[in-house]
Prior knowledge:
Blueprint: E1 3-12, E2 17-24, E3 30-37, E4 41-50, E5 53-63, E6 68-72, E7 75-77, H1 85-97, E8 99-111, E9 120-131, E10 144-149, H2 150-158, H3 165-181
Parallel strand pairs: 4-9
Antiparallel strand pairs: 1-2, 2-3, 4-5, 4-7, 5-6, 5-10, 8-9
Amino acid sequence: MIKTISSREVYRNPWTSVREDIIERSNGERGVYGVIDKDPACIVIPLEVTPEGNFVWLIEQFRYTVGQRFMEFPQGGWEQADVEPEVLARGELREETGFTAGKMTHLATLAIAYGVMNQKHHVFLAEGLSMGEADPDPEESDLILKRVSVDEFEEMFLDGRIVDNCTIAAWGLYRIWQARRS
Length: 182
């Protein structure tokens, strides 16, 4: 067990705060632990089932931290600790894709990079999609919406076109959930 001796905030912006904790480990040794505090987020699996096959909708966007464009499921947060997870998921889906979902299923709540960050990530399956108009945030003005077959989507994990661990984890969770319902 690790005990917190003291804590101080070293940085804050509207999306994130960073704190530095002085800790004491179970062996009595003291150290420093850096923690990123973030409000809850969500990731949405927009699934379209048609007679021609099953498809998912992805967004492609530039990710500043790694300096590249990537494809991933719609995801994000609103910088509010007390937001209702389904309201957040429906909002992010509409903002980034323009879709509304006839049915939203909460699959699980995961932790993102919990070695350094305490953010919860609510995973939702969105079905019965209806197209509307997207309303992206200013940082998301370059989003590109793409529809891909489930077979191609899964191939994208293996060939490196999708590297977002949250998207891959959400899909793995969905596949387990789906298999247990069969």
